[in-house]
Structures are given as structure tokens and as C-alpha cells.
């Protein structure tokens, strides 16, 4: 039950079983959660490889006759590139969990899109690029997070209904009830009820000094604004506050919240006015969470794929004007969103439409259809005896 599994859950089980058979291989033992069980039964077949060596795992995968093998972890801590180095499948593909090239000549393709991996960046990838039609990112928020945010709450933040239409509380799991409505939720966390809140709910390792100084400049341009971050990790709070003192930021203008469980974490998007993304390494699932709560996100894509994922999602959600072309542009967009309530609300309304748009960012079924077409094109190319080559997915 972690971000990658949550993203994957929107895909598995939505495939056309007459076209494709999905076999899941787990590198970690079961955590005995319902979430794990849901994943296991959603695949056509499922195998736990956690007790096997890389060589044994590769032998098992090869014995299953897998045509296209997805690497969902890359070089991350939970990955095992050794298995892929043994070439257990004729076509090996990197997808979703590692937003970068693997640098491995035994990974044939990376599934991406033209925003996350522009064609003029292709030289930085050892893989061939498989371009999805809109975005490569997959979200399952309509199924996993629908209960965490109420439709009247979303309507309230763009002024469509009065707050009196809301219930008193919202259940977010494990017996936890949070206040309904933006003002009550802000008060619950001890935040200014009427003030302007700039937020970022990423892990703080994604924050670099240049970005933090930019955020401070935005705060100076918005005297009524407060910056809300997570204690993630907790030790970063004191360090950042010391740095803020060096930059002469008034105490109280930067505040920290504790890390929360998934539903509460998603729900916190309601408290913000503007989400300030981290350009060096974007929020990925975190940005999807923010967009699901109709929270405008400002990002500035760099050269690396990990710095371009938020731009991919914003374009897929119809909000490409929030993608900055420079740090100065990032500043201008953030300040405009903060000051221009009508502009901000127009973005929120667009994001509200994007939540239910067929084929859009939150349509996991459409993403699975696109992936199925991608797999078929890869395999057709392989059967023809052709080398892997960059291509656009055709539906």
C-alpha cells in the first residue's frame, strides 16, 4: 500500500482480457492488506518472487512465457535490475515507478509522453521512447479517493454553493473524522482561515536552495500569504526555518504539518490556494493528489524526466498555462494565481471538469487501453524482426 501500488491499481483489472493477459510478479512479501489482495486478484496470474534470487526469478518469469516485461521500480530501493539484466523476456520496458532512463541496454523501451520526454531529449535515454497520447501517468483517484473529498466541498471553493450545504465531518478511515469545508479544515490544522495559503506536500528532499529562495520571493510579494509544508522528514523543519531566518522571513509565515495517512493527505489539498511544485524533482503522485482536489499547481520543467512529470499532468488536465518557462515565469504565475481570484477559480473549475473527462488524467481505463495498444505495437515490431524504435501509440 504505497504510491506506486496505488497508481498501478487503476490499471490492473481494467484491461481487455481478450487482448492481453497480465501476470504480476511481486519482489516483496505480502503485507497482508486488502490493497495487496485486490492487486493479486486483479491480475490474470500473480507470483510472489520475494524468496527467490535474481537468477531464480528470471528463470520463473521466462518459464511463464512473458512477452513484454514491465520494470516498475528501476534503480529505486525496491527494484531489482539484476533480474532484467538476465533478459527473461524478449521485450523489456520501464514504466511509471522510475521517472528516468535506466541507462541499461537490456531495457528496450520507456513508456512516457512528449511533455515528460521531449523528442529533443531522446539522446539522454538508453531506451527507445514509447509516447502515450496524452500523459504516461496513471491515476486511480476516482476509485481510491472519491470519499476523501466531497463534491460540495469542491463546489464551495469556486463559490458555487454555500458552506451550509456541507455535512459537519468527513470520514477518512480508521475512525478518523475531519471537519467538512475549507474554513473548518484550515482551523483544524491551526492555519489562517481567511488567509492565502501556498502549499507543498512533497518530501523535502525534493526542495533545493534555489527553489526555496524563489518561494521566499513569492511570500514577499504576497504579504498576506503563508507557506505550508510537511515535516517530511521531521528534522528538515528546523533546518528550513533557520534558512528562512537567514533570508529574513517573518516567523509564522512558514508552517509545517505532520505527515498523514493517505486519505487525510489527499484531503489536505482543499486547504491550499496554490501548490508550488519543486522544479528539480516534481511531485508525482502528490501533484496528482493536488489536482484531484482542484488545487492549482505551478511547475517549471527542467531537462530530466523527474522534473517534467507535473507538466505532463497539467497539460493532460487542460491547464498548460500553469507550466512555467523560467523561474521568473514561475514567480509570475504563482503571484497571479494568488492575487487574481477569478483566474484561480477558472483553473479550479477546469480541474473539476478534468476529474471526469473521458480519456483525461484521471481516466485509468483509458490509460490501460493506451498501454494495451503500446504492448501490441511493441510485440508486433518484435515479431517482424525489427529492432526496438521510438514510436507514438496508435489507438
Task: Provide key terms for this protein.
14 strands; 395 residues; 5-stranded parallel sheet; alpha/beta
Layout of secondary structure:
Layout lengths: L2 H7 L13 E4 L7 H9 L2 E4 L5 H10 L4 E4 L9 H5 L5 E4 L14 E4 L15 E4 L9 H4 L6 H7 L11 E3 L5 E3 L2 H7 L7 E4 L9 H13 L3 E6 L5 H11 L7 E4 L4 H6 L6 E3 L8 H8 L4 E2 L10 H8 L10 H13 L1 H14 L9 H20 L7 E2 L3
Parallel strand pairs: 1-2, 3-4, 4-5, 5-6, 6-14, 9-10, 9-12, 10-11, 12-13
Antiparallel strand pairs: 7-8
Helix pairs in contact: 1-2, 8-13
Q: Helical content, roughly?
A: 25-40%
Q: What is the CA-atom radius of gyration, in angstroms?
A: 22 Å
Strand fraction equals 5-15%
Order of strands across the main sheet: 3-4-5-6-14
Total strand count, please? Answer: 14
Q: Mean of the pLDDT scores?
A: 95
Major β-sheet, in short? 5 strands, parallel
Question: What report would you give on this structure?
Answer:
- With 395 residues, the chain is of the alpha/beta class.
- Helices cover 36% and strands 13% of the residues.
- The strands form four sheets. A five-stranded parallel sheet has the order 3-4-5-6-14.
Give a brief rundown of this model.
This protein is α/β, with parallel strands linked by helices and 395 residues long. The protein has 15 helices and 14 strands.
